[in-house]
Amino acid sequence: MSESELVTKLIKKLKSEGFRVRTEVSNMGQSVDIVATRGKWVTLIEVKTRNWSRAIEQCQAHEQVADYICIAIASASVSERLADRAKEMGYGVLHYCHDDDEFVWIVRPRLNKQVWMPQRRYWAKAQRRLLYAD
């Protein structure tokens, strides 16, 4: 399964749970795979089919703006190293199970207390401008 197909499946799940979803959103010179919002809460998700260590690096850049940060992965299994590192960082891990065609929480994210509100407001304002330009 490609990363694009995985993103599409995750978007469907998130929308069914009441999230508003955007993809490929700019943040700090990077692109976030998925931004899911519900109420005042912002969740940023990096999606990978492999190379979870790259996802960890990308997630670190999101700590200034996201209430929750997650990695969605479609590997055959989730390594213990990924689960441990995610717990340590406070990130969530969603695993796509090919056999069941669904996402399962391996690690639930913790509320990120590193949000820097001036940066969050700046980022949110930029997102609103993009929404109205679409």
Q: What are its keywords?
A:
134 residues, alpha/beta, Trna Endonuclease, Chain: A, domain 1, 6-stranded mixed β-sheet, 4 helices, disordered C terminus
Structure description:
It is a single chain. The protein is α/β, with parallel strands linked by helices and 134 residues long. β1 and β2 form a beta hairpin. Strands 1-2-3-4-5-6 form a 6-stranded mixed sheet, sandwiched between helices. The C terminus is likely disordered. Helix content is 37%, strand content 32%. It has one domain: Trna Endonuclease, Chain: A, domain 1, CATH 3.40.1350.10. It is globular. The protein contains 4 helices and 6 strands, in the order αβββαβαββα.
Unreliable spans: 130-134
CATH architecture level-2 label: 3-Layer(aba) Sandwich
Sheet-strand content, in percent, reads: 25-35%
The order of strands across the largest sheet is 1-2-3-4-5-6
Number of helical segments with 4 or more residues: 4
Number of strands: 6
The top-level CATH class is Alpha Beta
Radius of gyration: 14 Å
Tell me, rounded to a whole number, the average pLDDT. 87
